[in-house]
Design goal:
Elements: H1 2-8, E1 44-51, H2 59-72, E2 77-81, H3 89-92, E3 101-103, E4 107-109, E5 118-121, H4 136-148, E6 155-161, H5 168-176, E7 181-186, H6 190-205, E8 210-215, E9 220-221, E10 228-229, H7 236-244, E11 248-251, H8 256-264, H9 276-290
Parallel strand pairs: 1-6, 1-7, 2-5, 2-6, 7-8, 8-11
Antiparallel strand pairs: 3-4, 9-10
Helix pairs in contact: 2-9, 4-5, 6-7
Length: 310
């Protein structure tokens, strides 16, 4: 599928990969992946699926900023944009004019952001104005190609930005990718919480542990007067934590500067931004939770049994 797309597109400027050393804490975190020597996944220590039951809660921005936070901590990080129908990772990483390099007609060398994060997305391969009008099986095959045919290099974390909902792509990922854990993103209002619960239930049925819930847009603070307002309600993340016994690893503010960073894709000053502390703590808590999770099962065992009764 992607070979034809490569042939139709012109070559773009290449980005260079920058590597960072592992931080000492990561040495105590065991890899949860099986490591077949002939597969690109053998170089990836942990696959973290970031999902939500509802669109519009900031899942992609959380995925990208989680990747940036882990990168700032010294980890080698990649992002797989699995939102086939609405890819936004290229814009958020400032790479929307890039595309993967084709290697030997089969492999893809992924674009690299200014801060050294590698990523792959259907957004690199299909013009921005075009829509991916694909049925579920075709979209799922495209996702697996992006994962299996990308030369990710040595990664401590691969962050997978899932599409919203609980459909074909999520099922394909959990069946065929060695997912270490999941992160569920929500906003505080009840309508978002109801769908976040569905995402938590989905991961439970697929035997994937939810390492944490992220409550996005939890509070807005006026830049002029300093007054804080819970625009979308309060205590949503706490409710999920108490009901489903999953840790609340972050409550992220509604921040204009963060929105601007996502729009322009410039993450070079990320670790100096006032909101960075929230994402840094989220990344540290994820590492802590991941260290407690048992190694993932063999790929292909996360297959739910579906029964239809009259």
């Amino acid at each position: 599928m992607f070979k034809q797309i490569f042939n139709r597109k012109k070559s773009q400027n290449k980005s260079s990969t920058s590597e960072s050393d592992d931080i000492e804490a990561f040495k105590r975190v065991p890899s949860t992946l099986n490591r077949p020597s002939t597969n690109v996944r053998s170089n990836i220590k942990h696959v973290v699926a970031v999902g939500s039951g509802k669109g519009g809660v900031g899942k992609s921005s959380v995925s990208v900023n989680l990747a940036r936070s882990l990168n700032c901590l010294g980890f080698k990080v990649g992002v797989l944009d699995a939102d086939i129908y609405g890819p936004s990772v290229p814009i958020m990483l400032g790479l929307q004019h890039q595309q993967p390099d084709a290697i030997d007609g089969k492999w893809m060398k992924p674009p690299t952001s200014q801060e050294g994060i590698v990523s792959n997305s259907i957004g690199y391969l299909v013009p921005a104005e075009d829509a991916a009008v694909w049925r579920g099986p075709m979209a799922s095959r495209a996702l697996m190609q992006l994962f299996n045919e990308t030369l990710w290099g040595e990664l401590d974390f691969l962050i997978v930005d899932l599409p919203p909902g609980t459909g074909d792509i999520q099922l394909t990922l959990t069946q065929q990718m060695p997912v270490s854990c999941a992160v569920v993103v929500t906003t505080p209002q009840n309508i978002a919480l109801a769908d976040a619960e569905k995402a938590i239930a989905m991961f439970a049925k697929l035997d994937i542990q939810v390492a944490g819930v992220v409550e996005n847009m939890s509070l807005y603070t006026c830049a002029e007067c300093g007054h804080s307002e819970a625009i979308f309600g309060q205590y949503g993340g706490q409710k999920l934590q108490e009901k489903h016994k999953v840790p609340l690893i972050a409550q992220l503010p509604l921040d204009i500067k963060m929105r601007e960073t996502m729009d322009n894709g410039d993450g070079t000053g990320f670790n100096n931004a006032p909101y960075f502390v929230h994402f840094e703590q989220m990344a540290l808590k994820l590492v802590e939770q991941l260290s407690k999770i048992q190694p993932a099962k063999q790929v292909g065992q996360h297959i739910p049994s579906i029964q239809i009764k009259d």
